[in-house]
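Supplementary Methods, section 5.1.

A reviewer requested that the exact input to the structure prediction be made available. We therefore reproduce it here, unchanged from the version used in the analyses.
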Amino acid sequence: MKITIMTADEQIITLDVDRDESVENLKALLEVETQVALQQQQLLYNGKEMRNGEKLSVLGLSDGDLVMMVSGSSTPSPSANELSFNQDGSAVNPAAFQQHIRGDSNLMSQLFQTDPQLAQAILGNDLNKLQQLLRERNRHKSEMRRQQDEELALLYADPFDVEAQKKIEAAIRQKSIDENWEAAIEHNPEAFGRVVMLYVDMEVNGVPLKAFVDSGAQSTIISKSCAERCGLLRLLDPRFKGIAHGVGQSEILGRIHVAPIKIGSIFYPCSFLVLDAPNMEFLFGLDMLRKHQCMIDLKDNVLRIGGGEVAVPFLQEKDIPPRYLDEERFAQEASSSGAQVTSGATEKSAVPTGGQSSGNYFRPLKGSEFEAKVTKLVELGFGREAVVQALKFFDGNEEQAAGYLFGG
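The structure derived from this sequence is encoded token-by-token as follows.
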């Protein structure tokens, strides 16, 4: 596989390495390419340091991935003063500011999601353009605050005006929201990134597929089409028919009592409900997670089975097919936390309730509901196009969209 290494001085190196190669051997190859001693190299992947004894495959590296290399002989970490800003919003030391942000691959990844224009400026070589962008952002923010202060001054002119007092209350509330948003941007920027759900590679009855791991779903679920593809539909027990009621509802066609699944190199017995759900393929629920003593290890980004005897890495976002986003929405509609099953079978408690995925997705906004939010934000002085984009970016959350627009 080919991987790309970016050094601290922006040198781009492409290497063809084996998946089972060790990090130490990778550093040895980089020593030849960069003339930087192996002992002075620090490699970062997804913001985490790569240890010498680890294998590239265990770390989850795949073809085309990017690795950051920080040299021990590089310049020392910049001081807090060098990373501060002037009154006009520009950086005191733009070069140090640029290198500091570049050196944090996790922060760069979040910045590409929340502010791609600034991320491109930081990756570029034009410090004047970066400084100009920082000044424009600061000038725009100062202008917005000045307008808000002027509006408040007019409102305070008549303290007995009921409508004015309501507007003052709304302005104070919005100011608190803006300050909270700015604090989050500074201290918790990853909160604005999209959370990638947990998928692992599995085989069901010998058929490879990508399983959605949902610790909040009480039952393991397979769709009718997936069960047919895996050759399991002939084992369907229709006595367990029912209806799953949640935010929406879906028909339970029955139950497959046992079938082999392969996780890593080991086979495990599994049972699952079969749902008539075209937007969902396979959901690995809490019943099987408990049965096989699974652990969701987010530190190492792996699913451990059998108390740790097998560990399989969670898939990266680029390895998850886009159509699987529909499967995540299904977890809200057909297996929400309040779901109940009306079943003709003896097991009426077989309730596929969901928790992990259901809280992270909003119901699609109806036209009138969305338009009302757009109108409300446009009345605050923002352009309609910017308002629509902000609402879509925050999945219809009006307060987050407003905070983003005020802070823009």
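The chain has 13 helices and 16 strands. These observations are discussed further in the main text.
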